[in-house]
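U., I forgot to send this yesterday:
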Amino acid sequence: MFWRPITTRLFGRGQRPGWVRTGAQIAAAATLAPGILVALTITTMAGSGARAAASSAVSVTVSGNELVTGTGSPLRLLGVNRSGTEYACAQGWGIFDGPSDSASMAAIASWDANAVRVPLNEDCWLGLNGVKSAYSGASYRSAVEDYVASLNQAGLVAILDLHWSAPGAQLALGQQQMADVDHSPSFWSSVADAFKSRPGVVFDLYNEPHDISWDCWLNGCTTASGWQAAGMQSLLNAVRSTGARQPVMVAGLNWGGDLSGWLAHEPADPINQLVAAAHIYSYSQCDTATCWNQTIAPTATVVPVVTGELGETDCAAGFINSYMSWADAHGVSYVGWSWNTASCRSGPALITSYSGAPTAFGSGYESHLSYVASSPTAGGPYVVDGSGGIDPAGSAGGPPLAAPETSASWPGTNIVRGAAALPDASGGYVLDGWGGVHPFAVGSNAMPLPATTSAYWPEQDVARGIALVSAGQTGYVVTAAGQAASFAVGAASSLPPLSTASMPAGAAGRAALVTS
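Result:
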C-alpha cells in the first residue's frame, strides 16, 4: 500500500431451571399436541481470539485452515499496519516513523488488536545501495529485532513484510512488481534466521505483487524492465532453509486483491504452514461481497486467510465494516492500514495521534475490534430441543458451559417451536407454540428483557418461527398460516404487522425471515 456464523452463540446445556409461569399457563402448555421435537440449529460467529495472544506467551501456527495459538486455540489476527520501517531508512532520516516505545505498543493493544504488521525494506536490512549506515545493516536489524521482541512482550503477534525492494544497484524506494532475485531471497534467509526462534512471528513474503502472471508469481520470470523476479517458491525456500517453521503469508496478484489463482499455484511448503494474504480496499479489484465469496471464501476453506491490509479513503467506515462482518463470518483475519498520523483519505490513517486517538475512519475500525473482542468465541453448532434444552450438536458442537444457562425449560413437553439468539451472544428468546416469547441467558450474562407486547393464542398451537430485529429489541413471530405478528421487549415499541399471504388451508408457515 502507498500509505492499504453471523448468528450468535447458544451455549452448552447445563441444569435447566423450569420457566416461571402462572399455574394456568403451565397446565395449558402441557396440553400442546405431542409430536416430533423441534430442533433449531444455531451456528456461531467465528470468535477472533483477539485477546488470546496477550493471555500467554505469544505463539501462532497453522492447523488446517485455521491459525491457532501455542495451546491449540483458534486465533484470528486482528490488528494494524505500523508503516515507516519500509521508507524512513531509505529516505535517510530514521528507522521508525513515530514512536516505537512500549507506550505506543500499549496504545495499539488498547484497540483490542493482537497483531502488528511491520513493513520492511530489503536494502535497509541487508545494508545495500548506499543507505546510511545509521539506518541500515546492523543498526536497522537490531532496531527491528528489538521492536519485534517488544511487540511479543506486549502480547502482539508481529507480521514481518517485505514491502520495498529493488533489483541490482537500484535503491529500494518503492513497491516493485515482484521481489527480485538479486536481493530478496538473501533478505528472507537473513530475516528468517534472525527470528526463527520466535513463535510470535509471521513472515509475509511480498507485499503486493502486480502486473505479472500467476506462473511468474510462483516461479519467477524476467520482467518487462529486464530484471529477474523471484517467485514465491524461491522466497519460501529461503525461509525454510534456515529451519524457521513460522507461518508464511503469501499475497495474491493485482496488488494483493486477487486470490483467484492462489490455490492452483500454491507454493509447496514442506511443513504446511502457508497463509493466503489479501489486500482489500474500497477501490481495489476485490471490493464486493460477490468477489469475496468467489475468491476469498473458497481459499479460506483450505488455508487460513489474513487480510494483510484493509482500508477505505472516504474518512468513514462503511466499506470496512461490511468487509469485517463478512470476514468474521468466514473466519478471515484482517489488519487495518495504517497506524500512522497521516490523512484518513490519502493514508488512509487510523489515528490522529500515537496515543491511539482515532480518525473518523479509525473509529469505525476500533469499534469493530472492540465488538469482536467482547463476543464469545466459536463453539457451535448448538440446537434447541422441543422442551427448551440448548445442546451442542455433532462433532463440531461446543462443550457445555461450566455454569448452566438460564433458560425456559419444560422437561418432557414438546412445546418449543423456535429460538433466536441476540447479536451479542448473551442469550436470546425461545418461542412456544402459543406465541409466547421467553428470554434465556447464557453463562453469567444478565437475563434479556422480557417480551412486553406479543401476539398470543392461548391453547392454540399456531406459532412456528421467530426472528429478532433492531438488536433484539423487537421481532416477529410467524404462524402456521403464514401470518407474521410483531413483538417487543422491555420498553421498546412493537413493529407494524407484516402484510403476508395467509395460508389457512394448512400448516404452511415454518420460519420467520427478516432481511436487512
